[in-house]
Design goal:
The protein has 102 residues and is of the alpha+beta class. It is built from 1 helix and 5 strands, in the order βββββα. It is 22% helix and 37% strand. A hairpin with a 4-residue loop joins β3 and β4. It starts with 13 loop residues before the first strand and ends with a helix.
Amino acid sequence: MKPSSLEGSLPPCLRLAVFEGWRAWWHDRRGCDHNAESDRKLVFINVSPITKWLYTVDAGLVLPEANLSQCIWGAETDDTDTAEALWLEALEKLREVAYAEV
């Protein structure tokens, strides 16, 4: 699947960047019912290698699944401004790791 086919199809609580077999993932639980019982902070961000593409029945999407034990960078926060800064940092980490493997 081409990453461009995901554009516009994600629920508003998710952000996703895919590059060279890696993904940066953002999950904003504010106003979201995914993992409602989780003890995580409101925004969870990570950079991980893609293990497979997984069809999610509830959302009707094909998303890159990752094994979080292989996560090379991650952060959680309850602060909106911090979350935006962390997302930019995650995108930079994604570029670094993807280019390092090329």
